[in-house]
Structure formats: structure tokens, C-alpha cells
Amino acid sequence: MKISDIKCHVLVADDFDPGLTSSAQDSLLVVISTDEGLRGFGESDLNPYIGRACIEAPGTHTMGLSMRELLIGMDPLDIETVWHRLYTMTAMNGRRGAGVHALGAVDMALWDIRAKVAGEPLWKLLGTPRQTPVVPYASLQPAGKTFETYRDAICKDAEKAKDLGFRAVKAECTMAGPYAHDGMNESYDRHTELVAAVRKTIGPDIVLMIDVQYLWRDADTAYSVARDWEEFDLYFLETPIWPDFLDEHAKLADLLSIPIASGEWLSTRWEFIELIERGKIGVIQPDIGRVGGLSEARAVCELAAERQLPVVPHCWKTGVSISATAHLAFTRPEIQYIEYLPPQLCVEKLRRELAKEDLQFVDGEIVPPTRPGLGIEINWDAVARYSEN
Asked: Cα 256 to chain center, whole Å?
């Protein structure tokens, strides 16, 4: 079997707002075809125009070759060889960042093909099945331009998640900072009020995570606010400090009793080693597409397992990435929760429409999928509707 074609679909929702901090408004959908008629699907969380260029741009020298040109004719089942060849021969184009993110979508599609050839759901090829359930958390999304409307939207979704049976939720608490919702600039006291309101809404028994999207630049400022959140029994505080400031991460980890979670933007296991060892991170958050695909996400899970650190993968795309994340979780006991939103909590069109997952949410848990491969069904009408190709 050989790879015969690779197609990159740049998808952008017709109602997208570039002022919003939500990458679920677009998608890079990668489709790899074989000479035996099989297709594999992959996705990554980056600007899809850039991702397409990383894959399709023609090569100019031996350290900056074209991923597409390299892929044609290779064995799709020899994923390790494909990954290392693409990583090595495109190193000057993107040894980190967008180049690896695009490679992650390719890797995901290859794993989809391998599992389809085996006639098995992907998780059965990724390792030993775990003995504990896979538990998802619901991400709570804000709305409005005032503190009151923001708080009420988050708490309304928290109530919905509770009614749906979620055992864990994550609230976006970003009313200031570089990724402030809709240009808001509320005080840190308001952020504390929001955390308190969400905890009151869900009660003491549901796990609560808080995402502040790089709100602070240094550990002292972060601690001056987040120390007041220790009373709310948070499972983690996500991305409190800019990801390059690893010494500040380590300092905050020493000061704060709440575990710090980070890693959503990182590519390759090597960046995670630095985050873990120098940044003293408490919860590891690889995004399967961005980190370099399922192959590299497995390596990051191994790092976490060796250090007895929990993993909670980041996933803010469509059912393609959600499915890949769930399949990985079914073989990795160090994954404590996965990010998952049912249609009742989805706002973005692509999340609702692009792919139908073979995932069932029952009694607060995800049931193991049974269809071969990722088990997804692509809605080609949605691809045509939102395609920018």
C-alpha cells in the first residue's frame, strides 16, 4: 500500500469573528488517500492557511522539502518512518510550531488509515486498554461584553453541564490580559468573583478547572490573585503565565497549592521535557494535532507517566480531534480527563457540523468507540460550505 494523494481543506465558518479568542471557528482538515482506496483524516489547531502551506509548499533544498512531495509513494502503515522523514527533511521550515502542528494532522490521518486496515477502532492499536473510565470535562464559554453577562453565560453553561451529567467542568476566566474576551478589561477581583460564582453553581462535588489564557506575566502577580482561589478546590489553573517564562512557572508552582496546567501550544516531546523539568508544571496538556500527532502525544504521555504527572489533553477543534483524543485516552491511564463538548454546549458551527463522532457520553463517562479507525463520519456538505480552497 502506498500514499497516492494528500488534500488539505482550509475551512472557515461563515460567521467567524477575528476578534474572538476561539480557534474552533476554523479548521485544517487533512485527507490522505492510498492506492487501495482508503482515506485517513487528520486535523490540527493552527491557522489553516499556514498549515496548508506547511504541507503543500514546494521544497527548495534538502533541509526544506515539501511534505506533500515526500509523502507521495510512502507506506502509510510505517508511521514512524513517515514521521521522522517529514520532521527531518522539513526541519528548516518548521522544526517547532506550525510545521510540527501540520505534521500532527498528517500523523493523525495515518493512524486512522492503519486502524482501518486492521479493521479495529484506533484505541486498540495504541496500547493496552486502561482499567479506569475515560471522564470528559465540559468547557464553559463566555458571552457578552460586561462582567454580569460574562458571569451569567458561564454559570448558565455550568448548570447545563451539571444537568447533562458532567463530573468536571472548565471555566474560561479571561476578562483581561492578552486574550481577554471581546476586549474586556475587568479587575482581578472580578475574576475571583467569577471563580466563586462557578463553584457555587456546580456545588462541591463537580471537579472545577480554571483557564486564564496567559493572564499574567510573572509569578508574584499571579500568586497575589490566585492564592485567593485556593479555597475553591480547583483541579488546576491553566496557562496562568506566558509559556516562554519557565522560571516564572516554577516560582508560581512553589508558591501556589493549585496545580499549574500548560502545554497546549507546545510541539514535540522535547518542549514538554523543558516545561516539566524547568517549569515544574503540575498537569501536562498536549494538543494531539499541535504536539505532532498521536505518535508524539504518546511520547508525552510516557514522559508524564515516568514522572507520575497527570495528563489532561487540550482539544478545541472538531470531532476529528476530539475522537483522536478519546482514542488515546482509552490506552493511557495517566490521562485524567479529556476535553469534550456535546452539541448542547457547542457554539461554533464547525464543531457541530464537520464530523460525527463514534463517541457516547453515558453517566459522566465516554464509552469506548467501536468503528474502525477514528470512527468519524465527515460531513462533506459542511466541507463544501466552509471551504476556502
From this structure: 25
* Cα 300 to Cα 275: distance, rounded to the nearest angstrom: 11
End-to-end CA distance of the chain: 28
State the virtual CA torsion across 102, 104, 105, 109 in degrees, nearest 10. Answer: 140
**pLDDT at site 5:** 98
Three-state DSSP string of 293-309: CHHHHHHHHHHHHHCCC
Which portions of the chain are predicted below pLDDT 70? 389
Q: Which residue has the cell 470528559?
A: 136
**Distance, CA of 112 to CA of 8 (rounded, Å):** 16
Q: How many CB atoms lie within 10 A of CB 185?
A: 9
Q: Which pTM does this prediction carry? A: 0.96
Residue with cell 510550531: 97
Amino acid 344: pLDDT:
72
Confidence at residue 121, expressed as pLDDT on a 0 to 100 scale: 98
Which domains can be identified in the chain, with CATH numbers?
Answer: 3-119 (3.30.390.10), 125-378 (3.20.20.120)
Interval 40-86: pLDDT, tens: 999 999 999 999 999 999 999 999 999 999 999 999 999 999 999 99
What is the rounded CA–CA span in Å between residue 76 and residue 111? 8
Maximum CA extent, the chain = 60
